[in-house]
Amino acid sequence: MDDQNRVSYETAAESAWPVGLGNGPGRIVLLGPPGVGKGTQARELEKLWGVPHISTGDVLRANVSQGTPLGREAQTIMKRGDLVPDSLVCEIVATRLREPDTLSGCILDGFPRTLGQAIWLDSRLVELGFGSSIIAVGIRMERRHLLRRITGRRTCPICQSTYNVYLNPPTQAELCDMDGATLIQRADDTEHVFEERVRTYEMLTAPVVEHYRALGRFVAVNGELPIGEIAAEIAAAVDVKGHSRCMREIRN
Ligand code: AMP
């Protein structure tokens, strides 16, 4: 990297702190292919920082199960493994960002997924007075590990605990350890849809990584580590003290 670029990265990274109102972690965007553990990490970080986890996928699935007009529009698209239109997901996020619990920060999981969504989010945060407060965290994992994580994934419909029948099974097959509810498998967690979701990720979401990398707001973590270690890596990178580390990652 030449010196000119280095200076512009540092300037961009400097402007990422302080991160908006309050002393929270700011607005964290979790990026990565399907099955990499974005939802799991978002829940870990929500506990750690006490800021809300916003998952556009969860909001869409809730709309599908409630049979709302949004859910009816999104259902077929989601089943195919395609992305629902930017206008719909941006509206979901716009509504959620108006809630006061997002003032000191939030963890966005599954958004932005297109360059259009990323550009919309950047300008929305400026409008809301948060400036350039996003830190994008890319979770990496080898593709051959993703499939088992997707096809083995089960979720408790009551407490949202997640399991994996291969890697992290519940004590009693198909039942939640917390409340005994019958675990469910997402309709799009099949091998066929997985391939489509990976293609969609590579085509539409990979440019979002490049967008944040170019702005000096990107950090990558290793998704193959134990859950707690990944969360600690993310927290360290996002922490003000992790500022220089974030820049080191960007340079590598
Ligand atoms: P997720 O739970 O994040 O894996 O999302 C499940 C599905 O919801 C995706 O495969 C998409 O069909 C849809 N979806 C979730 N978030 C977005 C988004 N930001 N943009 C477009 N579609 C989305």
What would you say this structure looks like, in words?
The chain is α/β, with parallel strands linked by helices. The chain has a domain at 1-140 and 202-210: P-loop containing nucleotide triphosphate hydrolases (Rossmann fold, 3-Layer(aba) Sandwich), CATH 3.40.50. The protein contains ten helices and seven strands. It has helices at residues 3-15, 38-49, 56-66, 69-80, 86-97, 115-127, 143-151, 191-214, 227-238, 243-251, and strands at 26-31, 53-55, 105-109, 134-140, 153-155, 162-164, 218-222. The strands form two sheets. A five-stranded parallel β-sheet has the order 2-3-1-4-7, sandwiched between helices. Strands 5-6 form a two-stranded antiparallel sheet. Strand 5 and strand 6 form a beta hairpin. Residues 1-22 and 240-252 have low confidence and may be disordered. Bound molecules: adenosine monophosphate (AMP).
